């Protein structure tokens, strides 16, 4: 049986941007296969338990300004969580050991971009019609999902994309 995680979309954004944690915004990007931290390494280190992946890089493009080669980090736990209500724990999804590209683009729509590939073992729906406020609904069967890198076939120094998997 699937669980349903419901997250409110922040007002004022033209795309599905949610809050995770105290002051971190997150874009759920159905057209992406790369998780990207857009606020630079210093803020990443202040926001999450992370490790830099030495010797690996992302070839980052798709932001309308050409490409760049950026550092790779592993964020140990990214938690998407619905608010608790009257003593009842909200539903949640934990992405374990997610590999992210780290760049400094402070004008981006969100601090973190979560790609469609992170949700490959889930169903997600953006609800805009006939709801009080826009929201993202994510059907999932597990609480924890591991998100691992797929390396480039011709040059293993570069991460090509990430892929989500679950362990039984």
- Proportion of β residues? over 45%
**Tally of extended strands?**
12
The count of helical stretches stands at 1
Helix content range of the residues, please?
under 10%
Biggest pleated-sheet summary: 5 strands, mixed, barrel
Instruction: Calculate the terminal CA-CA distance, rounded to whole Å.
Output: 15 Å
Rounded to an integer, what's the Rg over CA atoms?
A: 16 Å
Q: What's the arrangement of strands in the largest beta sheet?
A: 5-6-7-11-12
Shape: globular
Structural class of the helices, strands and pairings?
mainly beta
The secondary-structure element order is EEEEHEEEEEEEE
Uncertain regions: pLDDT < 50 for 5+ in a row? none
Q: What integer is the average pLDDT?
A: 89
How does this model look, in words?
This protein has one helix and twelve strands, in the order E-E-E-E-H-E-E-E-E-E-E-E-E. The mean pLDDT is 89. The strands form two sheets. The protein has a five-stranded mixed β-barrel with strand order 5-6-7-11-12. Strands 1-10-9 form a three-stranded antiparallel beta sheet, with no helix packed on it. The longest helix has 8 residues, at 40-47. The chain has 168 residues and is mainly beta. It has one helix at residues 40-47, and strands at 3-8, 17-20, 24-29, 36-37, 50-61, 67-81, 92-102, 112-115, 123-127, 135-140, 144-151, 158-165.
List key phrases describing it.
168 residues; mainly beta; 1 helix; 12 strands
Produce the secondary structure layout:
Layout: E1 3-8, E2 17-20, E3 24-29, E4 36-37, H1 40-47, E5 50-61, E6 67-81, E7 92-102, E8 112-115, E9 123-127, E10 135-140, E11 144-151, E12 158-165
Parallel strand pairs: 3-8, 4-7, 5-12, 7-11
Antiparallel strand pairs: 1-10, 2-3, 4-8, 5-6, 6-7, 9-10, 11-12
